[in-house]
Structures are given as C-alpha cells and as structure tokens.
User: Which sequence fits this backbone?
C-alpha cells in the first residue's frame, strides 16, 4: 500500500511518521476485516488506495486529534464523507473506518515507539455499535499483530500466542466473554489478548520477540502511579478522559514461560505494578507446581459424582490433553486411582483398554515430572491392544480391544476419526485439559464453534456417552452443546465455573503484591510464599461454595419459582446480556444456571461499583478476602489497599450469591424494588449494626439479607474445607428444606410489606431457620 501521497501538513510530524501512518491504516483495515468481520482485507485496502484524497484527509484528522500539543479533540470525518462522491461498498467501508477512528481514544503515534509499532486503543461500544467490552487495544507492526480486549477498566486475563492468523480477534472474543463470566467472583473483570508472529519462519525466539512487542505496545499507552499520584502516559492524548493504570497480564497458550520476561519489561517502564504485572512469575504462585486450576476443577468434579452417588476413586476417564500440561497433567496425578482408558493431545493419542491402575499412575507421574508427551509413554505398561498413535496418521490399524472399547466396526481409521471415537466413548468422566473446542450442539455447524483447527475432530453433544464432564480448559464445548448434553442426563457446569481457581489464585497474588508494595522485595516474597497454603485453601473453599450456589439455583429452578427464572431470562435478554437462543426458562439445565449466576453477579457488581459507598460499609468484607493473619498484622495496609472498594464489594456479593443462589436476590430486585436498590444495599453492607436498626418496612431486600447474615458469619463462611466435605450431599438430601425455607422467607417478607405482621415478628420467625441447611 503506497502512502507517499499522504499530505500531513503538521509541524510536529517527522518524516518517519509516514510509515507510522501507513501502519495506522493497515491496523484499521485488519480490525475491520478480522475483528468486525466486515469486508475482505484486500477489498478494504483496495478501497483505501482508490481514494487517496479521502485517506489523506482522514490521516490529517487523526494527526490533529491525537497531537498532544493540539487542543483539537473533535474531528470532521463526517463532513469528509458527506462531500465525497463515494457510493456502494466504498462508502460503507469508509463509514466503518470513520466509526472505528472515532472510537479510538489513545494511540502511541506521537511516541518514538510508533516507528516500530502502532497501538490503537478503542472504545468497544463505539467501535462495535454496542458491546459488552469496555476497551480493545490493537498492536500492529510489520512482524506482529495482536489485540487485547477488556471487560472493564479493572480487568485481567491471559495473553496467548495464537496461530489463527485470519481470525485471531474472533478467538480472543470467545475467550474474553468466557473470562468475564469466570472473573465475576474475583476483583477484576475479564480480559484476554493474543498476538500472531508474522515472521516468515516462526520460532520460539521470534515468538518471544513478538510477545515483547505486544507487551510494550500495551504499556506504551497505559497510565502509571507514582507516590500515590496518577500519571497519564507521556505524549499520549487521552480522549477517554479517564485514568487507566490497571494492567495485569497472565500466562496462556504459548506464553507459559514468558511471565518473567513481561515483568522485566514492566520494571523497564517503571510500571507501578512491577512484577505483579505478569502474575505467576518467579516471585509469584507457580500454578503448575501448585496445581491450582486442576485442584479447583476437581472440586467441581467431586461435586458431580457426589450428587450421582458414584465412588469417585473408581471412575473410568477419557481425557483431552497431555501429561506435560498444567491442567491436564496435574489432574491426572491428583486422580491417582482412576482408570484412564484414553486421552489425546494436539499430536498423539493414548489408549489403554484395561489399565493397571498402579502402573498407569506411576507412568503418568514420570511423564508429568519430566515434562514428557504421550509419545514418551512406556508402551510395555499399556494393556493388551492399546498403544500410542499419531493424530496426523491417515490410517491406524485398530486392535480388537480398541474396537470393543469404543464399539468401532471398522478395522482402521484416521487419527482424526479415532479422536472422535474416543470422545463418543463410554466413560464416567470426560476431562478437558487441552486447547480446543471439541463438542458442538447437534443443531450447530462447525462454524459455530469458532475453532477451525478442530473441525475434523469435533462431535455433537448427542453423541456423548459419559456421566460427568469437567472443563479444566476454556471453551472445550460450545454453550449450546453444554445445554444439550445436560438435557441428555450428563452432569456438567460451564468452563467459567469449573476452572476459575487459576484466575482466582492470580488475583490473590496480584492483590497481595499491591498490599505489600511498601515492603522490601525479600520480605514481601517471604510473606507471599508463607501464605500460599492458606490462599489455596481459601480458593478451594470458594470453589466448593460456588458449586453449592449453582445447586441452590438449580433446585429452585425446578420448583414453583421457575417462573421467576423466566422473568430473569427475559430481563437479561432485554439488556442484551443473554443470547436470544437461550432457553425460555422452563426446565433449565445446570450450564444455563451457571451462566445466569455469572450474568446476575456481573450485573449486581457493576451497579454496586457505581455507587460511592463510605468505606466503613465494606471494611469487614475486605478483611474476609485476605488470610486471617494479615488482618491481624497488616490491618493498616489492608485499609489503604488501592482496590479496597473492589475487594469489599466483590467479597460481599459472593457471600450473597454462594449462600442463596442468584435467583433469590434477583426475585426481590426484579419485583419493583430496583429503585431502592442502592439504599438497601447500603444498609446491608453496614451489617454489624443492622440488627439494632429500625428497618423501614419497605426495605425488603435489607431484611432478606439480614437473615442470610446470621448463617454466613457464624456457620458457613469460616468453615474449613474438610468440614464441608459432606455439605453437597446434605444440600441434595435436604432440597425440600431449601425450597421450603426460601418460600417461607418470601411469604414472611410479603406479610411485612403488606403490614399484616411487624418487622419484629418477621425477624423473629426468620431467625429460627437455617437458610444454608
């Protein structure tokens, strides 16, 4: 694309900015084609080249808009198009370009780095004509492309090395939506980013260099904090008008070993988060060593089998992943008594038709310890008829044992076909621990899975024959396939519920590092290591509570209160928070309940964060977030934590959701009490005084939570994990009591509102019941 015609008559622009300006428009063309998926990239570029004068005027407008020395902040793009002779697709393309340029709120164009790469920060709501995302940041150079998406100002999530050159923004969109749901229970909202290495011969070295460019691009336009003062990024005009200094990245596919490198860049930029910038580095919690994501996923797995009355220690398993992987590898070590009959990674297939439990566990442990793949498995430890096969093989001869195991009638098949036979096999558990979307609904096409690389290995949900599915990996199934599988009797959650312990662990690490920022680095690191066991324990207890909260909602949705779920779904659809093809609310499945809980929590959290609470109202809940010994020894640091409000409100809201399920709260809010919502929440948060308050009879929500409080603070929140082992079974056994208690609460509160009983009488009745059973 020739940009020599660009006539930039601005003194502040140097000659090298012609190349920078070229990258700006190539970045916009890439975003329109690959993120918005409107028009082919080549068609967009050809349109730009056919209309040199208009591109030049757009370029001038861009320069004036972002020149730090120019007060000009408006633009005249619309007038440019109005006076042009553009028609047809050319006009539409420039109208889209106009919208995306108007959506651009920051750029590094006036920083020296623009010679190497261009960064464009977009307001997603404007760029996409409505979006649940807050911001998207584009990084573009001759050798690197990437995009970072955030659900809110305070957001975090992994950065992955993508190989989906033509649709990597679509990949990130799916991941960030899942991350936003997953992050509703932690402090930040969800974020995801990815980059592609455009080197002709991509290698680990060029991939690291591409990652380096991507990370620098993000930091180039991010604000900083120094001595408690917020500093805008230098030479960056911030048209968003807000301080934007919270940027936390994490390891993801292809970047697991890059955290220390990112933290070194953070130090180079004197970024205020220092090595909290990329969680999981040398001075953080090693997720693979701890096995935190697998531990959390297995809490959900045990929950499913307890409900099914199946002995967890004697299950057969089909797996997706390799033993060198964090999630899959750890899970297959933690599940030491299982019978793993088959598994596959991105390259190899493992089949052991009749495994010797002890031999298989020892061999899995050896692979995990030495970071080896399935091809390194000692085949003498595999039972008769089994073996290791390449997925890429066009033809694999099948033993009689394999044919019997998976009920195959042919004598040979390709590696891709064998993967599908495995996914369709009978087993107690299907454990997803590897990258890829392997299951779609029977009414969906492969396109709906947004994962072209797995098209030849994907099956339909109605072909699954397992009892339980655990999604230790993200996006292993489409949402519609989860619903279909659940309707066919399979017990499963969503990935956002199953594997959120990893992000929870990273969040605790980041907030501990922020808390200890005034300490010496050695003292801080010693404290963080010392607290690891308690942090992990707290996270696993929260995993258990979250699954119980889902069970509460599932039970309630199957009672007379199902109509309330119908109303909730209608409301969420009206807010465009839920897709139109979501169930009507009749006979909701567990995956639907998981998504409703996440969406409801997200909605309530945003409302609470937008209100200016006095800090006294959420102090106690801030303390509940941190290990107990910190509250005793570092109370002053906790009271001054930068994210104190976020921590307090998130912790408070989680207590409500986990103890009662989301619908009980939703019922009250949706039934015409939303106008008093904030006023009631303020009273709820001041929980220590609420018992002695003269509560107005209209404060239904306040009275409702008063009852929960008695249970939460005294019997539920502070229980250790081992004391809760039988709680899932008790919830199932006493499902009738749960419903009866909920119904009683609603009846009493209605009587209070109608004035047939007094507040005191209502409190007296309510205090006699244990809501959490």
Assistant:
């Amino acid at each position: 694309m020739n940009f020599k015609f660009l006539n930039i008559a601005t003194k502040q622009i140097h000659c090298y900015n012609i190349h920078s300006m070229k990258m700006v428009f190539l970045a916009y063309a890439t975003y329109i084609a690959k993120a918005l998926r409107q028009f082919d990239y080549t068609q967009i570029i050809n349109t730009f080249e056919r209309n040199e004068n208009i591109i030049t005027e757009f370029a001038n407008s861009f320069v004036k808009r972002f020149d730090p020395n120019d007060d000009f902040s408006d633009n005249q793009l619309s007038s440019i198009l109005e006076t042009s002779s553009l028609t047809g697709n050319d006009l539409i393309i420039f109208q889209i370009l106009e919208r995306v340029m108007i959506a651009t709120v920051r750029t590094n164009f006036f920083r020296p780095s623009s010679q190497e790469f261009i960064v464009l920060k977009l307001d997603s709501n404007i760029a996409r004509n409505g979006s649940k995302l807050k911001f998207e940041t584009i990084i573009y150079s001759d050798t690197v492309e990437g995009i970072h998406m955030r659900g809110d100002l305070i957001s975090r999530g992994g950065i992955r090395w993508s190989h989906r050159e033509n649709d990597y923004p679509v990949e990130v969109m799916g991941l960030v939506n899942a991350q936003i749901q997953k992050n509703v229970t932690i402090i930040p909202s969800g974020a995801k980013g990815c980059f592609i290495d455009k080197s002709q011969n991509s290698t680990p070295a060029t991939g690291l260099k591409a990652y380096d460019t991507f990370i620098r691009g993000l930091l180039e336009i991010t604000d900083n904090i120094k001595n408690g003062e917020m500093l805008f990024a230098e030479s960056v005009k911030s048209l968003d008008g807000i301080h934007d200094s919270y940027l936390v990245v994490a390891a993801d596919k292809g970047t697991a070993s890059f955290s220390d490198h990112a933290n070194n860049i953070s130090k180079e930029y004197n970024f205020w988060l220092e090595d909290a910038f990329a969680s999981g580095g040398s001075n953080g919690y090693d997720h693979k060593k701890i096995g935190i994501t697998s531990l959390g996923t297995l809490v959900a797995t045990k929950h499913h089998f307890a409900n099914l009355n199946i002995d967890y220690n004697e299950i057969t398993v089909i797996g997706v992943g390799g033993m060198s992987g964090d999630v899959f590898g750890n899970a297959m070590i933690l599940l030491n008594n299982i019978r793993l009959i088959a598994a596959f990674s991105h390259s190899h297939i493992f089949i052991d038709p009749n495994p010797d439990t002890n031999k298989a566990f020892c061999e899995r442990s050896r692979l995990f310890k030495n970071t080896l793949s399935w091809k390194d498995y000692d085949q003498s430890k595999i039972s008769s008829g089994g073996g290791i096969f390449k997925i890429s093989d066009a033809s694999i001869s099948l033993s009689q044992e394999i044919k019997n195991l998976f009920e195959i009638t042919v004598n040979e098949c390709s590696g891709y076909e064998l993967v599908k036979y495995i996914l369709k096999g009978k087993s107690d558990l299907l454990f997803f621990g590897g990258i890829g979307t392997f299951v779609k609904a029977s009414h969906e096409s492969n396109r709906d899975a947004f994962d072209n690389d797995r098209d030849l290995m994907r099956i339909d949900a109605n072909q699954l024959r397992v009892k339980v599915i655990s999604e230790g990996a993200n996006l292993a199934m489409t949402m519609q396939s989860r619903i279909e599988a659940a309707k066919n009797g399979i017990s499963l959650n969503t990935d956002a519920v199953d594997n959120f312990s990893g992000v929870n662990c990273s969040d605790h690490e980041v907030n501990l590092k922020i808390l200890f920022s005034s300490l010496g680095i050695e003292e801080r690191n010693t404290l963080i290591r010392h607290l690891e066991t308690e942090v992990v324990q707290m996270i696993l207890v929260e995993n258990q509570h979250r699954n119980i909260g889902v069970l509460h909602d599932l039970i309630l949705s199957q009672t007379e209160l199902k109509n309330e779920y119908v109303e909730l779904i209608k409301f969420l659809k009206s807010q465009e928070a839920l897709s139109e093809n979501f169930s009507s609310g009749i006979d909701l499945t567990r995956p639907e309940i998981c998504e409703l809980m996440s969406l409801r929590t997200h909605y309530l959290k945003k409302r609470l964060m937008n209100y200016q609470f006095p800090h006294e109202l959420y102090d106690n809940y801030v303390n509940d977030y941190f290990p107990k010994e910190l509250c005793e020894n570092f109370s002053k640091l906790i009271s001054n934590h930068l994210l104190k409000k976020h921590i307090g409100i998130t912790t408070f809201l989680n207590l409500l959701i986990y103890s009662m399920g989301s619908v009980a709260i939703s019922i009250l809010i949706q039934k015409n009490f939303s106008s008093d919502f904030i006023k009631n929440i303020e009273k709820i948060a001041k929980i220590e005084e609420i018992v002695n308050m003269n509560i107005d009879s209209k404060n239904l929500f306040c009275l409702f939570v008063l009852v929960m409080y008695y249970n939460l603070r005294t019997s539920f929140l502070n229980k250790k994990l081992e004391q809760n082992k039988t709680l899932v079974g008790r919830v199932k056994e006493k499902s009738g009591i749960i419903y009866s208690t909920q119904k009683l609460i609603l009846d009493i509160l209605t009587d209070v509102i109608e004035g047939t009983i007094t507040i005191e009488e209502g409190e007296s009745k309510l205090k006699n019941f244990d809501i959490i059973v």
